[in-house]
Structures are given as structure tokens and as C-alpha cells.
Amino acid sequence: MKDGWLQRLSDELAQAWTVAVKDMRVYYLTAPMIMFGLLLPFLLFFSFSIKREIGVQVGLARLLALTTFFTASSAGPVIIPLERRTGTYNRLLAAPMSLFTLLLGKTLVGAFFAVATSLVPLLIGLLVMRVNVVNAGLLVACIVLASLAFSAFGLVFGSIPTSSATAVGSIMMPSTLVRWPLLFISGVFIPLTEMAPAARAVAYLSPLTYAQDLMNHAVLGRGLLSPWLDLLVLLLSGVLFLVLSLRMHRQSRRLGY
Amino acid sequence: MDEKIAIRVEGLTRYYRNLLAVDHISFQVQQGEVFGFLGPNGAGKTTTQRMLTTLLEPTEGRIVIFGHDLAREPYPVKRQMGLVPEESNVYTELTAWDNLMFTAQLYRVPRSERAARARELLEAFGLWEKREVKVENFSKGMSRRLSIAMAIIHRPTLLFLDEPTPGLDAQSAHAIRDLIRQMNAEGTTIFLTTHQIEEANQLCDRVAIINHGQISAIDTPERLKAAFRRVQSVEVALEPDGAAHGEALAALLGVTTSVKMGDKWRLYTEDPSALLPLVMDYARAHDLRVVSLSTLGPSLEDVFLEITGRQVGTVRHEAAEEKPARRMKGGGR
């Protein structure tokens, strides 16, 4: 067996992947994931877009931002509380891997779910509606990066220190309370250019704003901010959410949950 | 570093807010030992085990496993450790085979060995025929066996078992005890948390008894029993109507406690040889037939009860009334 940090790194990456694949097999078809991750983004989009005269291109950019955000951030608040209840989370915590590796695996689960879900409107847009995407490379980067960042965002809620008896619904509640308002201040339903200055200042605090702006750059070829700034903010947001989740997990271990 | 020591615990303490769950306990577990950790519910057993397996942070104290300080170097310890928690934490949505493969991958068992080890374990636990069945269709005993198989697929040198057999059918419990013996014979150190005292008696090289968060006693089962000579006993079955003589038997000279055990009376005494003729005299005087009469050394359960002062299991029954000098338990009238 190879020794040293290279072997350890290889092991940790393989373990993160193992956790992600297991979660995909176990949880992707569970009711909360289908409800909150798959159906809700589409229902929301059609609820708020119906009878509004928006172009197909704009609609696609908005739907992609919405699905990456909602789908990716649904995994953490569903999977971790479920695993805590069944005791299987302890199996992962006791395994020879770092907490970061475990959370990386969990991040991948939500991210893959969001990427796969985003493919549905994207393929319909490209193949059926004949939407012209201005920058395909940027669109791929945006979907992947936004999915990772928002999946890490969902992990924050799944990491809230709670006892193993806490129901999934109790974790979904705070996550819903935070995620829904973000939809309305992040330029998804109301473009930033139409917002009052005060509301726009608040919008800049939301990572979803930067994902929507990046989608606009990729699909429409225009956005309000620099695409590089959007990419940087999404990257930093993902790191920040992961670090926050790590700290909350350590807090759980201290508290005895 | 003493290479023979598997676990060294020094001043281990855990508070839950203001509640002191584990109170500055210290002990060592030798390599190759089956170490029993006994205690009544709420004594601090599971809290201690959770700290030993990195799931819970101690408030104070130090844990060294195989020479590694657990707080600073958990990784090499986790690689050598297997954990069987009280509840079978298996993925019910996956098959038995997939559960084992997942764990093997998680513990980085070489790819070439995974399938062979999984097959070996499934066959050993009688689950090979059910390998493609989702675990949600398994009985409690089958889930338990699978949970243990998952804990040992990476061949740990230290195995933690938390209450491995309660609630299982006799066959499953027997199979698990055999496995513990076999793994220990192959060199695995076993840390067994249990309140099944007879199980600890049968399996453990040494036991620690924890009560109210503190270690009350720690020694081999036989030495613990020897230290509690006052809980030796004489067991007698009388006919006719033996149950009616409990109070009179309890009043015999030297009897400290009497306990009804089915159709028999167990009379605790420090001197069984002196009590035997008194029991025979009593039977003759009351025209009773002695169906059986035997002397018993203290059981580990007796020791446990002496130390913890609590009722466990179903053997003892608290008396309706207690005397200051003698405790009448069971059917005393």
C-alpha cells in the first residue's frame, strides 16, 4: 500500500465518491427529494411565469437558476436528518475519513441531482423550443458551480445541531424559511434592473443573484455584473457554506448529538 | 507506549450541559482482551463508548488507542476500529450485498478482496441466500447479523459492540457470541458494552462495572465474584407448598436475603456450609420433602446488583416489605 498524503488524498476522494453514490441510490427516489427537489422548482416557475410575457430565452435562464438553487439545496436538509434518525450517519462519522470528505460527498449528491434536473429544461429548451444559448461553456460552468454552491448551502441546514429524533420536517422548515425569500430578492422573478435600490442592495447578499446573473450571461449574452465576479462569488459561497457546515458538525459532536 | 495496551482512558469526563454523564473514569484494555463494560441504564456506558469511537467529544480526559491520542490522531485509530451500535444501522433501501460493498469501499478494502470477504461473511452469518434481498425485508436478527458483518468487513483489530444480542432469537444471539469468541481468538480486541450480565460472564476476560458515571469495579468475572463472598447462596426446593415457607427460611441464622426463583428459594449467606444443616433441620421439623438443595457461588449478576444496588433482569423481584437486617424478595409473606 502506498503511504503518505497522496494515498490519503486518493482514499478521501474515493470515500467522498462512495458516499455520494450510495446517497444517490438510497435517497434520490425518496418522497421529500422528489417533492422538494424535483417538482417544486418547476411548479414555482410555472406559477410565477404564467401570463407573464417573458421570452423563451429569459424563461430558460430563470428556470435553470431556479432548478439549480432549489434542487441542489434540497438534498442536505433531507438526507442528513434521515440518516441521523436511522443511525446510519454515525456509521459515516465513525469511518476513517475526514469530516470534510463526508461533507464533500454529501455536496456532490445535491449537485448531481441539480445538474441532472437542470438537463430537463435545458434539453427541452434546446431541442424543442430551439433556444439559442449564447455561451454554452459558461452555461455548463454556471450549472455545475451553482449546483455545488447551493448543495453546500443545503448542507448548512442539514448540519444544524439537533437530536437524532428530530424529524426531517423540522429541518426543512428553517431551510424553506430562508430559501423562499431568496427567490424573490435574487432577480429570478423580478429582474434586478426593476428593483428599488434598497432591494437591489439586499439582492447582492444572495448567492442566487450571482447564479441568475451568470445564467443571463450564458443564455442571453447579457447580465448586470461581470461574469467573473459571478463565478468568484459562487465559488466563495460554496466554500463558505462548506466551512459553516463543518463548524456546525463539530458543534454537534461537542453537544452530543 | 505500552504495545500491549489497546485502549488507555485517563480521567474521561462528559457533561451534557449540567448533567455529569461520565465522571473522570480511567481504565485500560489490553490487546487481545474481551473487555466487558457493564452498567444499568443511564450509567454512562453508551456515552463512554461514543467517546471511544470519536462520535462524541469528551469534556475532559484523554483516550489513547493503539498508542494514538484519539483527539489528535483519529484517522489511524478509525482504520483499525469496527463499531456495532445498539441499533442496527444498515441501509434498509439497499440489499445485504450492497450494504457490505458500500462499507468495504468506505474502509478502502482492496477491490480484489471485497467480493470474497463479503461472501465469506454472508455465508458465516447465514445471509448468503438473502444477499440480493433489500434489508427492509429482513428480520431484526438478520439486520443485526448484517450490521456486525459490515463492522468487520475491513478486519478491525478493535471491535466495539453495544448491546449486540438483546431482542434476538436464541439462534442469532448464539451465532453472535460464537463470532465474538472466534474474532477474539484470531487476535481482535473486543470492547463489549452490555447489560446482559451472563453474556459478559461467558465472554469477557475482564469487566468494568460503571454506575452513576463512575467505574465501581474492574476485574475478571471470577475475581469479582470472589470479592463478593457474602452473595453466596443456598438454593432449596421444598414440597409440599414450598412457596409458603419463604419468610421462615429467610429467618434462618446467617441468611441475609431470600429470593424466590420459580419453585425454589435462594437464600443468600456468607457461610453456605453452616446454613445447609439448618435448612435440612427446618424441612424435617415441618415435615417437608427436600426436592433439591444446592450451594451456589456468587454470580456476576449478584456482584452487579451488590455494586449498583439496582434490580436487573427478571430473576429478582423486589419484596413487598423489607426488614432492616434481612431483605425478603419474591414471594415472602
Topology (elements, then pairings):
The complex is a heterodimer of chains A (257) and B (333).
Chain A: H1 4-27, H2 31-49, H3 56-86, H4 88-94, H5 99-128, H6 136-158, H7 168-185, H8 197-203, H9 207-220, H10 227-255
Helix pairs in contact in A: 1-5, 2-3, 3-5, 3-6, 3-7, 3-9, 5-6, 5-10, 6-9, 6-10, 9-10
Chain B: E1 5-16, E2 19-30, E3 34-38, H1 45-52, E4 60-65, E5 68-69, H2 74-80, E6 81-84, H3 96-106, H4 111-124, H5 140-152, E7 158-162, H6 170-185, E8 189-194, H7 197-203, E9 206-211, E10 214-219, H8 221-227, E11 232-239, H9 246-250, E12 255-261, E13 264-269, H10 272-285, E14 289-296, H11 300-308, E15 327-329
Parallel strand pairs in B: 3-8, 3-9, 6-7, 7-8, 12-15
Antiparallel strand pairs in B: 1-2, 1-4, 4-5, 9-10, 11-13, 11-14, 12-13
Helix pairs in contact in B: 3-4, 3-5
Task: Write up this protein.
The complex is a heterodimer of chains A (257) and B (333). With 257 residues, chain A is mainly alpha-helical. Chain A has one domain (4-255). Chain A is 79% helix and 0% strand. Chain A contains ten helices and no strands. The model of chain A has no long low-confidence stretch (mean pLDDT 89). Chain B is α/β, with parallel strands linked by helices and 333 residues long. Chain B folds into two domains: 5-221, 3-Layer(aba) Sandwich (Rossmann fold), CATH 3.40.50.300; 228-329. Helix content of chain B is 33%, strand content 29%. Chain B has eleven helices and 15 strands. Chain B has helices at 45-52, 74-80, 96-106, 111-124, 140-152, 170-185, 197-203, 221-227, 246-250, 272-285, 300-308; strands at 5-16, 19-30, 34-38, 60-65, 68-69, 81-84, 158-162, 189-194, 206-211, 214-219, 232-239, 255-261, 264-269, 289-296, 327-329. In chain B, strands 6-7-8-3-9-10 form a six-stranded mixed beta sheet, sandwiched between helices. Chain B has a five-stranded mixed beta sheet with strand order 14-11-13-12-15. Chain B is globular and about 75 Å long. The A-B interface holds A 8, 11, 14-15, 18-19, 22, 25-26, 86-88, 90-98, 253-254, 256 and B 14, 16, 47, 50, 53-57, 75, 78-79, 81, 83, 85, 87-94, 98, 102-103, 105-108, 150.
